[in-house]
Structures are given as structure tokens and as C-alpha cells.
């Protein structure tokens, strides 16, 4: 394959909303939406394939530990912590542009607090905690500004 195809030649200084973002739906599933296994490794796979937005469906799990799975189905459950650790490990191996966690939140306040704790603990300085007012999309930071950052969309 042509190595030039792996390089970014576009202007990456525009507001984030000016770009199409490679996104993954039900990222954690290794197969169909009803019966398949949920696997943290699926995040490693899609991030290394160039995906910059991954979906994390969060639900209350046992012992106060949030889990990721496709709700109301027979898909298996994985600890949220494992998912966050996998994303942290693989987010920027192939690509420095920001990663967006699209969190679908079905958790109680108690387990939401646990998710917030894990996000801060696992991602550390990579977690972008700057608040964006949604009024004017032209004020959004650019992909260049956000290199190496993890954004959370809920």
C-alpha cells in the first residue's frame, strides 16, 4: 500500500464540526446485536483501523461496577474499566487526532460517578475537560488543537 495514504494532507485547523469523523456503532460487539460477545479488544481493533469515535453503552453492573453491553439483549457484559483501559492503550498508536467516546448512559448516579472516576483516573491529562458552549459551533477547537485528547460525548 502507498505510505502517503497514511498521512493527513487536509487542513486540520478548522472547528471540529467541519469534519466527517470515522465512527463505530456498538463498537464492543464482536458479532450480531442480540447474542454476540462483547469484547474490550474490539476497541483496540477499530482505533487502530482509524476510527476516531467509539460507542460505549454503559449500564449498572454488579458490585457497583458499571458494565458495557447492548441493553435488553443477551450480549455479554464487560467491565467499563476494561473498556477505558483498552481505549487508553490504543487511542493514539496509529493516529494522534482526538478520540471521542460516545457514551450511551443508562447508569444510576452512583455508577455514573464511578465512570467519571475511571475516566479521570485512566485517561489523566489526555481527558479533555474543557467545557464547550454549544451555542456557536465555529468556536469548537480544531482536530489539530485536540491532538492526543479524549473527548466525552454523552
Automatic annotation (TrEMBL):
BP-aspect Gene Ontology terms: lipid catabolic process; phosphatidylinositol metabolic process; phosphatidylinositol-mediated signaling; release of sequestered calcium ion into cytosol
Enzyme class of the recorded protein, top EC level: hydrolase
UniProt entry keywords in alphabetical sequence: Hydrolase, Lipid degradation, Lipid metabolism
Record has Signal as a keyword: no
Its EC number(s): 3.1.4.11
Signal sequence range: none
Cross-referenced Pfam families: PI-PLC-X (PF00388)
GO cellular component terms, semicolon-separated: cytoplasm
Gene Ontology MF, one: phosphatidylinositol-4,5-bisphosphate phospholipase C activity
Reactions accelerated catalytically: a 1,2-diacyl-sn-glycero-3-phospho-(1D-myo-inositol-4,5-bisphosphate) + H2O = 1D-myo-inositol 1,4,5-trisphosphate + a 1,2-diacyl-sn-glycerol + H(+)
Occurrences of domain Phosphatidylinositol-specific phospholipase C X (ranges): 10-154
Transmembrane regions: none
InterPro entries listed in its UniProt record: PI-PLC_fam, PLC-like_Pdiesterase_TIM-brl, PLipase_C_PInositol-sp_X_dom
Protein name in UniProt: Phosphoinositide phospholipase C
Biological classification of the source: Eukaryota, Metazoa, Chordata, Craniata, Vertebrata
Amino acid at each position: 500500500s502507498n505510505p502517503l495514504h497514511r498521512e493527513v494532507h487536509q487542513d486540520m485547523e478548522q472547528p471540529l464540526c467541519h469534519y466527517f469523523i470515522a465512527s463505530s456503532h456498538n463498537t464492543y460487539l464482536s458479532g450480531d446485536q442480540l447474542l454476540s460477545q462483547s469484547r474490550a479488544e474490539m476497541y483496540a481493533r477499530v482505533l487502530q483501523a482509524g476510527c476516531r469515535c467509539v460507542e460505549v453503552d454503559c449500564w449498572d453492573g454488579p458490585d457497583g461496577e458499571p458494565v458495557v453491553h447492548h441493553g435488553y439483549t443477551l450480549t455479554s457484559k464487560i467491565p467499563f474499566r476494561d473498556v477505558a483501559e483498552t481505549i487508553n492503550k490504543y487511542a493514539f498508536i496509529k493516529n494522534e487526532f482526538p478520540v471521542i467516546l460516545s457514551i450511551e448512559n443508562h447508569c444510576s448516579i452512583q455508577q455514573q460517578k464511578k465512570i467519571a472516576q475511571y475516566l479521570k483516573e485512566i485517561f489523566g491529562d489526555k481527558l479533555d475537560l474543557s467545557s464547550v458552549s454549544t451555542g456557536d459551533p465555529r468556536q469548537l477547537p480544531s482536530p489539530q488543537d485536540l491532538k492526543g485528547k479524549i473527548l466525552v460525548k454523552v
